Amino acid sequence: MTEPLLDVQRLTVTFGGPTPAVDDVSFFVLPGETLGLVGESGSGKSVTAFSILRLLQPPGRISDGRVIFEGRDLLALPEREMRAVRGARISLIFQEPMTALNPVMRVGDQIAEALTVHGKATRGDARARAAELLDAVRIPDAARRVRDYPHQLSGGMRQRVMVAIALACRPPLVIADEPTTALDVTIQAQVLELLRELKERYNLALLLITHDFGVIAEMADRVAVMFKGRLVEQGPVREVLRHPAHEYTRSLLAAVPGMR
Model-level pTM? Predict the structure, then answer.
């Protein structure tokens, strides 16, 4: 079997209360594959994603577990080394680009910053790369749009900018946290198709976090189902769709029109 790119082992996260927000969670992501992490709001999916990148806000605390990425335990790295991982080796696409993008900074400069911070390009080269990346995520008239501010773009275009930033350093792993939640149905489909196309083009591994089993059925190779902070089921998507073993998985599938 291929060595996992990401191997999350017995991850437990608490926020000070008696019940962990993430409880003894283990899963892996292979190079080039898409793992769907699915569950309702509050099930612990986003907390898991932020824990992998050590971006938890207090009082959130990782109380147990290991996160092995490219052979290193990210939870044991000094913060200086962890900063070199974020964005360059693992990038995160947030669900709400208006809160993730800097409202007073041109989108081209935000993409260029992702490159210069990690030493992937000089300032001049980074500006040219920013236009190329906007073009790659199918933003029309990319050379002009690099000078726009986030508020000048539609919701779908802002999410495409987030994808461009995430891909700027060509990381082997992208975590997409509910990347289509704030978009209408037509734009959702376009963004998912874009992610699928770019994943193939750049041979990315994708950890796709969503509450929508329809998205999982369309996008993922394997699925892990999360309920109340625990993983209750995981396996190849087709297998789980055809023979869901857990009652919660069956209820998620029943909520998607035409799925069952």
Answer: 0.94
pLDDT in tens, 53-76: 999 999 999 999 999 999 999 999
Report the C-alpha gap between 206 and 226 in whole angstroms. 17
Cβ(119)–Cβ(88) under 8 Å?
A: no
Cβ atoms 102, 185 nearer than 8 A: no
Q: How far apart are CA 175 and CA 195, in angstroms?
A: 11
Give dist(CA 17, CA 147) in Å, integer.
46
Nearest to 65 by CA among 139, 130, 10, 1: 10
Query: In this structure, are strands 22-29 and 34-38 parallel, antiparallel, or unpaired?
Result: unpaired
pLDDT digits (tens, 9 = 90+) for 162-202: 999 999 999 999 999 999 887 888 888 898 999 999 999 99
State how far the Cα of 213 lies from the Cα of 219, in Å rounded to an integer. 10
